[in-house]
Amino acid sequence: MSIVWGIVAGIVGGIIAGMGMGGGTLLIPILTIFLSFTQIEAQGINLIAFIPMAVLALYLHKKNHLIAYKQTWKLAITGAIVSFGSAILANSLKGDVLQIIFALFLMGIGIWQLYEVVIYYRNKKKSKTDLK
Prior knowledge:
The chain is an all-alpha fold. The chain has helices spanning about 1-20, 25-35, 40-65, 70-90, 95-130.
């Protein structure tokens, strides 16, 4: 039965990732809460699941000429360094601490997204009143 739930988790994570939101936002909680993986295992699975999605996204962006090559190297090098350091840090922390950090991260993203929506609609409403 856990294979079925694993497939469901992968499908849901892929759909969420395809909509522009990180698939791990949902995949990691599904793996830890419903499938009893540790936080470190769930994060590792998420990283592996990310590879095919990243390859497909890269292909589509290249095909549509949406890659800014000059900035790519700066971001790739910085991302690799930060990822390496974060992986070392994650391996040195206990799973409970990682869960708390991940939960705080998700709450922070949620608050930021809510703020962005409020600002968007406030500006939209303001621009309508300016037209009158």
